Amino acid sequence: MQGITRLLCTSILTLTSPLAWASDANIQARQQWYEGIATGYQSLTTEAGELAESARDYCQNPAEGSREHVEAAWLNAFLAWQKVRLVDFGPVENNNLSWQFQFWPDPKNLIARKAAYLIGNDEPITPSVINQSGVAVQGFPMIEYLLFDQEFNAGETSLPVARTCELLTNVAGHVKSNSDALMAGWQAFRPHYLETEQYFDTTIRAGMATLEILEERRLAQPMGLRGINKRTPYIADAWRSGKSLQTVAATVDGLNRYFLPGLEISLEAKGASDLADRIRKQFNEVQQNFPGAHLPLATALKEEDQFRALQSLYVDISQLTTLVNDQAAVALGVVRGFNSSDGD
User: Fold this and answer.
1) CB-based contact 145:115 (threshold 8 Å)
2) Contact in structure between 293 and 252 (CB atoms under 8 Å)
3) 113 pLDDT more than 80
4) Which helix (H) or strand (E) is 166 found in, with range?
5) Most CB atoms closer than 10 Å: which of 53, 282, 311, 332?
6) Could you tell me which of 204, 298, 214, 301 has the C-alpha nearest to residue 250?
7) Same domain assignment for residues 174 and 293
8) CB–CB of 81/102 below 8 Å?
9) If pLDDT is split at 50, 70 and 90, which confidence band does 64 have?
10) Burial annotation 212-242 (CB, 10 A radius, 16+ → b, else e)
11) Domain limit, last residue, from 167, 196, 225
12) What is the pTM of this model?
């Protein structure tokens, strides 16, 4: 009888162990993702603080070189955002924080219209005004408009005009406040994220959605491969500053740093180490063969040799998307669902 009991127990353990291993791996993956995202959010907070400080210093004393310092601080903070842009759940959903950081796409040019309205009236531009002005005003694209829009900067209200400086410094302060709130929210979110199994699938879907947006909206559409059959840089994000390709590179880097390690843990636990290795190699392929990231997208779309390099990048990212969204998702049993950050 004892032998039969031992046999039954052994059989039960044999049946349940793979499930237990998978569960443990999912927990380990979430731990990896949590820490990675926390690192990314901390970087965003630091860079947003530098941006707010440099904007304030510039407007108080617009000395030679201080404008360039603000532009560099804007880029560093914006790229830090791009690296954590993959997260579309948790605290970043509160009060439309993701849209506050980056209002995009903007087919109606609301950013320019909102800037003209705020600069053109007599009401003081205060933090309260920014809070009430909507997502087109509150984030990185508004600051980009003030710093880089050619038509605006040729006009009489361009920086460092006092009224425009009010808008610049208050939007930069708003970005800083939101970054701090996001970091604090993520820290408070830790127990819920780590203890809730559904966030495994949610995080996988977030990475999948980021790759889809990267491939379809941020590359294919400007390249004329989707929608209108015409190359146009103006539907890409960060077109005014000419940093569209740098933002793409930052998003790939963020996926590689903050998403891939947890994905590898999960795939290896499922016996899909070969697939994990192929995905890792494909990330390396994308980053090693990336066309000049400092090249404006408008130039890459216009010059044929650069456009060929852009096509190669598109193919590399398409292959990465297939590996993650089709093969890895199937291996992990994750079904693609609706994503609220798809730009619609």
Assistant:
1) yes
2) no
3) yes
4) helix 162-195
5) 332
6) 214
7) no
8) yes
9) confident
10) bbbbbbbbbbbbeeeeeeebbbebbbbbbbb
11) 196
12) 0.91
CATH of residue 135:
1.20.1420.20
Conformational region of residue 281, where left means phi above 0, alpha means psi within -120 to 50, and beta covers everything else? alpha
Asked if 294 and 164 count as a contact pair (C-beta separation under 8 A), the reply is no
Residue 158's region, left for phi above 0, alpha for psi from -120 to 50, else beta, is beta
Place of tokens 């309260």: 128
- The answer to whether the Cα torsion of 243, 246, 248, 254 is positive or negative is negative
Residue 241's domain spans which residues?
197-344
Assess contact for 57 and 31: CB atoms under 8 A: no
Encoded tokens for 97: 């924080």
- CA 325, CA 313: separation in Å to the nearest integer? 18
Q: Which helix (H) or strand (E) segment is 331 a member of?
A: helix 329-332
- Select from 181, 183, 259 the least CA-distant residue to 214: 259
Torsion sign (Cα): 50, 55, 61, 66 = positive
Contact 115, 82 (CB under 8 A): no
Give just the sign of the alpha carbon dihedral 313, 202, 38, 259.
Answer: negative
Classify residue 143: in a domain, yes or no: yes
Sign of the four-CA dihedral 22, 28, 33, 34: positive
Length of the chain (residues): 344
Residues 271-301: pLDDT tens digits? 999 999 999 999 999 999 887 767 899 999 9
Tokens standing for 76?
A: 């560093």
10 Å CB burial of residue 327 (0-12, 13-18, 19+) is middle
**Residue 21 included in any domain:** no
